[in-house]
Amino acid sequence: MADVDKAVIAKLKIREKHFEILVDCEKALAFKSGKSTDIDDVLATTNIFSNVKKGEHAADLIKYFGTEDVYAISKKIIKEGEIQLTSEYKAKLMDEKKKRIVDLIHRNAINPETNLPHPPQRIVNAIEEAKARIDEYKSAEDQVKDVVTKIRSLLPIRYELREVSVKIPASSAGRVFGIIKQYGKVLKDEWQHDGSLVVNLELPAGLQVELEDKLNNVTKGGVEITIVNRK
Predict the structure, then answer these.
(1) Using CA atoms, how far apart are residues 10 and 223, in angstroms rounded to an integer?
(2) Global pTM value
(3) Which CATH number covers residue 224?
(4) Given 106, 124, 158, which residue is the final one in a domain?
(5) Could you read off the pLDDT of 35-70 as tens digits, one per residue?
(6) CA nearest 37: which of 49, 24, 27?
(7) DSSP codes, 101-169
């Protein structure tokens, strides 16, 4: 069982009734996200409350849950309800979400004025200046569109997919093909008469510079990359 003194409230409203339990914050969030966590480690008590702070126990469990099994009920409350976050965990979660949103913008979008990705710190500054709200309960992927809308007046942003042709010298083909596949969708690959390999790759525009730098580092500048198409 979790430490009661450090526990937070998880709650669920079913019609007019409120149901609350005491849980370990991080373990409850892990359980909610589908990670394999023992429910005994999540719960601080095996009591179902209507109001934890007043110590009022919930009634009519069968009517609202179809069972009196506290573990089954607790799982439903955690999965479908809201988990109170500690201030420390909330700050940590917000920081992680912001970093992920910044990374998504940096990797998938470009500055249309330069055709290059915005540096991460510039994106961070724009988010802070625009006071773009980040929701700790929503995934970064679900929020990035709203954040981009909020900062677009400060940063010119365009999402773009590119098809690039990557020509790899014969001496490096075996080493770099695996790297290329990590950056996007391989549309085709053809061996040339001189032993070199040409790969057509579709990738987010923001990743092209990173890919070029990595491949040139491995091949000592032996890679040729040209843009075939923009979407």
Answers:
(1) 54
(2) 0.67
(3) 3.30.70.240
(4) 158
(5) 877 899 999 999 999 999 999 999 999 999 999 999
(6) 27
(7) HHHHHHHHEEBTTTTBPPPHHHHHHHHHHTT----TTS-HHHHHHHHHHHHTTTS--EE-EEEEEEEE-
